[in-house]
Amino acid sequence: MVVFALMAGFAGGACHCVSPVAVFFPYTAIARGALSWESIGDVLFILQYPVYALTIARARGSNWKALALLILLAFHIAAVVLALRVYQHG
């Protein structure tokens, strides 16, 4: 998570935008940008990747792990699209 936060920070500084944060931490971007829930956004920032890791780790068998990964990826991509739309129109 720290690596993603650093990458988003450096990329955001290079483009002077919030798009990298929205890509790496879309739930935080949605909570802060669309809903103005800063405290919840902070919690989502901290918990997003541990929840991803625990979800995949708790899945039993390689088929279930792959399915969990695909579901998490689909939710992440959908959240990224929503977060980018929030900042595009905001």
Kindly describe this structure.
With 90 residues, the chain is mainly α. It has one domain (2-89). The chain is built from 5 helices and no strands. The protein has helices spanning 2-15, 19-24, 26-33, 38-58, 61-89. Helix 4 (38-58) runs antiparallel to helix 5 (61-89). The protein is elongated and about 45 Å long. The model has no long low-confidence stretch (mean pLDDT 87).
Reconstruct the topology from this structure.
Blueprint: H1 2-15, H2 19-24, H3 26-33, H4 38-58, H5 61-89
Give the tags.
mainly alpha; 5 helices; 90 residues
- Mean pLDDT figure: 87
Total beta strands: 0
List the total number of helices. 5
Order of helices and strands: HHHHH
Structural class computed from helices and strand pairing:
mainly alpha
Please indicate the percent range of residues in DSSP E strands (runs of 2 or more).
under 5%
Through-space gap between termini: 26 Å
Q: What proportion of the residues is helical, as a percent range?
A: over 70%
Low-confidence stretches: none
Largest sheet: none
Structural domain tally: 1
Shape label: elongated
What gyration radius follows from the Cα positions, in whole Å? 14 Å
